[in-house]
Structures are given as structure tokens and as C-alpha cells.
Amino acid sequence: MSEPRPPGAQRDLYRDTWVRYLGYANEVGEAFRSLVPAAVVWLSYGVSSSYVLADAVDKGRKAGEVSSPEAGRSTRVAVAVVDTFVWQALASVAIPGFTINRVCAASLYVLGTATRWPLAARKWTTTALGLLTIPVIIHPIDRSVDFLLDSSLRKLYPSVGKPSSS
Fold it and tell me: How far is 90 from 41, CA to CA, in rounded Å?
């Protein structure tokens, strides 16, 4: 789920428990897009987006609880909320959702042109390929979003308020 915690570190509900998997709901929805009504796919995005928002609020709350004479409380809270929200929105919703959508669309197209399989078999195969792609894309996308934010948005934060990790 995430990197190992140092001994004595507090367990993060949104990163160290099963709750983290709610962030992947939209990828599952995209994988099943050819089999389910569009409303189910949109619902999966609602679940993932709720996870993103809840994690951002949680990180803001935790940043507000830290006593530090170096930076203002509101700055720490704002940096934590913005950084978490942007990171999660990109790494958990937008990029993986788009990636799984395109993998599934491409595989459905290729199966339709390269095989004579019945439509139901092509759709189930596409869904399986989409689901199998999810664990393969998670870490590269996470690291890419880290790099993107480190190279852009995180340069704008006051040095004291920078989040320790995503």
C-alpha cells in the first residue's frame, strides 16, 4: 500500500489500510466500462474522488495539529491540503483512469479487428486486461506524479511547509 512506517509512527488511515483501495475504484470502473452502465463508471469516480477529498482534509487537519514556531498554521494546512489533493487527484484518479480507459478501448478495438470472438468474450477479455493493468501502472504513475509535483507545484511552497512525502 505504501512505504514501511518508521517504528512508532502513527498509522495513516488513508495510506496504510484497506481504505487506500477506495482510491482505485475509478480504475475498476473503467475496466468494467464495456460491461456496465455509464452510471456505474461515474459512481466509481465518485468513490475515488471522495477518497481524494477525505485524504486531503485529513492531511490538512493533521498539519493543523502540529505545533511549529517556524511557519504559520494556516500555511501548513493549506500546503498539506493542496499538495495531497493535487497529488491524489492526479495519481489516484485522473492519470490511472485515463490509462485504464485507453488500455481497455485499445484492447477492445484490437480484439474486434484481430479475432472473431463473440462480443461478450471480447468485452470480458478487455475487462480482465484492464484489471490486470491496474497493479502494473500504480507505482510508475505515483513516482511520475511525485516528479511532476517536485518539479512544479512543490517549488512554490514555503520550505517549512513542504510535505515530507506523498
Answer: 18
Burial of 137 from C-beta contacts in 10 A (0-12 / 13-18 / 19+): middle
Which 3 state secondary structure label does DSSP give 68?
coil
Rg (CA), the chain: 19
pTM of the model as a whole: 0.86
CA distances from 70 to 38, 103, 134 (A): 49, 47, 41
SS3 6: coil
With a cut of 70, list the residues of the chain below it in pLDDT.
1-8, 69-71, 159-166
**Can you tell me the distance from the alpha carbon of 133 to that of 156, in angstroms, rounded to the nearest whole number?**
34
Residue at 64: amino acid letter:
G
